[in-house]
Amino acid sequence: MTCESRSERAYAKLNLVLRILAREASGYHGIETLFQLLELHDLVHVRVGTMSPSLRCAGPTMPAAGLGPVEQNLAWRAAMAYTGASGWNTGWEIEIDKHIPVGGGLGGGSADAAAVLRAFEALSPSPLGPERLLALAGALGADVPFLVSGASLAWAWGRGDRLLPLPALPVAAVWLATFAEGVNTAAAYGAFARAREARGDTVQAGAYPPGAFASWASIAELATNDFEPVVSAMHAGVATVLPEFRETAATLRRSGSPAIGLMSGSGATCFLLHTEAAAVHTGGPATLLPTHTR
Fold first, then answer.
1. I need a labelling partner for 287 at 20 to 30 A (CA). Which of 82, 230, 270, 278 fits?
2. Greatest CA separation found in the chain?
3. What CA–CA distance (Å, rounded) separates 28 from 51?
4. What crossing angle do the helices spanning 108-123 and 130-140 adopt, rounded to 10°?
C-alpha cells in the first residue's frame, strides 16, 4: 500500500453563548451555544499506509504530564471511528503540534479530532460524505461537529450535533486569559447540576429575535455562559480575571465599540473580544494570549 499524508489546521473555538438545558436520561445535558472559530490553531499531520496506528503530541502548550493514555485521546478515537465506519483497513500515524492551551474550554482536543476526521475523509478511497462525517463528529463530543464543519460562526443545540452555520462576521480581536490549571468538564457540569437543583430552576431553550447573531453589537447584548458562576467558585483565576474582562467589555460598549467579556466553554479560559484596540490588564496567574476571530 502506498503511504499518503495530509496536514490540517485544527482551529480553536469560543462559545459566545452557552446555555445548559435539561439533563437527558443518559446523564448528558443538552446545550444551546453560539460557536465562533479562532485563528489560534494546532497543526495535525496524518499519514496512512501499512504502519501500525500511532499518535504523537508535542508543542508549546503540551502539559508536562502529557495528555494521558493515547487510546483516550480524541484524535485517536476519531481515527478509530473513521476507519471503523468506513471499513477502511489502513494503518495510520498522527502527529499533533499543540498551540491551543489544553483543558481551557477552547476545544483543542475536539479541534484535533475534527482535523483528523477531515484528513481521513480527504485521503479515503471511499469518503463518507458530509452527513456521515458530522454523525461521527457528534459521537466524539459536543464541539466536534462545529469544528469539522468548516463554518466560522454557527448556532448549535442538542449535544452540539444540531448545527446551523451562520454568515461570518468581520474579523475581531481577541485576548485570551489562560491558566496553568484548567477545569474538569465533568466536575463543572456536576457543580452546575447541583446548583440548579438547589435553586429549583426550570430549564427553557432561548428565544432569539431575527438578526440576533448578525453583528458583534447584537451578540454582545446576548453573550452569556451558564458555567461562569460555578466555575468562578471552583477556580481562583477565573474569579479574578472574568470580572476584569467583563468591566473592560462594558466600558468599550458604553463608548460605542462592541465587546464581549466571557468565559469559554466550561473554562478556565476567559476572553475579551473587541472590534477596536483595547488595553488589557489582568490580576492573578493568567497568561494573556492575543489572537483574532476567523
1. 230
2. 62
3. 37
4. 150
Catalytic residues: 13, 143
pTM equals 0.92
248 lies in the same domain as 150? no
Which of 166, 183, 198 terminates a domain? The answer is 166
Type and span of the H or E element at 206: none
CATH at 94: 3.30.230.10
Cα torsion through 56, 44, 82, 4, rounded to 10: -90
Q: Would the pLDDT of 189 be above 70?
A: yes
- Flag whether pLDDT at 144 surpasses 70: yes
| Enclosing domain of residue 284 | 173-292
Asked if residues 75 and 55 have their Cβ atoms less than 8 Å apart, the reply is yes
Query: Strand (E) positions, the chain?
Result: 4-23, 29-49, 54-58, 91-97, 153-158, 162-166, 173-179, 224-225, 259-263, 270-274, 286-292
Tens digits of residue pLDDT in 169-179: 999 999 999 99
For position 227, which CATH number holds? Answer: 3.30.70.890
How many Å apart are CA 67 and CA 69, to the nearest integer? 7
Could you give the CA distance from residue 216 to residue 213 in angstroms, rounded to a whole number?
A: 7
